[in-house]
Amino acid sequence: MTLYLLCFALFLVGLYGVIAKRDLIKIILSMGILGYAVNLFLVLVGYRQGGHYPILEGQNPVPVMVDPLPQALVLTSIVIELGSTAMVVALAIRLFQKYQTFDISKIRRLRG
Amino acid sequence: MPIELWLNFLFVLMIIGSIVALELKDVLSSIIAIGVVGLGVSISFLLLQAPDLAIVQFLFEIFCVVILIQAFIHKSHHQMESSRSNRWLTAATILTAILLFIGCLPLFKVLPPFGKPLMSTAQYYLDHGAEQTGAANLVSSIVLDYRGYDTFGEVTILFTAILGTFTILRKTAKAKHHGGQHE
To answer: What residue ranges define each of the domains in chain A, with the CATH number in brackets?
Structure first.
């Protein structure tokens, strides 16, 4: 319960960064924080008390294992996050080349 | 519970690290603070018995810090946000976040408590994964066999994102080239 709440607090810190910051770099970093919070929450939900990591090592009574499904899906999500971060950074570089600033309130002619 | 204690400590560290990263004025310092947060996530995955995720998160964090520093470290005439009109929005956002936190408290009581997951589908994978797929690592048996289409979609998205990155970055060079010809 406390862990879920701390995870949610991390998510809210990321949300604050996305909404209140005007700096493109800070917004990219807050998107990363949002991703961390969501991934952590999914893995937290799948944890089992006293669980063993889900790799079979030949023990004869198979030990109690944690939930492997969220781990597999979070693995997918982390890789996608890397791709999207690279793409957002490329967009930010392009915007900087055009407007010479990272302040989103000064980037006004976005309509082309 | 030693694991819960460690996780609480790490989560508080990560929250402090992300607030520091968002509030610092120096770009390099905030990128490094984000690196600290990501490595905290990696250690949390290790404590939560997810070794593959810990390795992938570690690599992701290193790549992320390298990409961000490479991209943003030369922008020295980077202008900081003006504080005058921003203060209003900041206060409103913090207030909304606190209200959201209090309002969502009852939702967390509905969730299964920490350490006791539902395990309805996953128990099937744990019981039959080894004999049906032949993989000792059950996470990779899910990624590559049970949820194979998911992984296919992931690879497609990754390919598209990298293609998009190259397109965005290459277009500038072409435009400059053409501009030079016309001038």
So the answer is: 2-51+64-99 (1.10.287.3510)
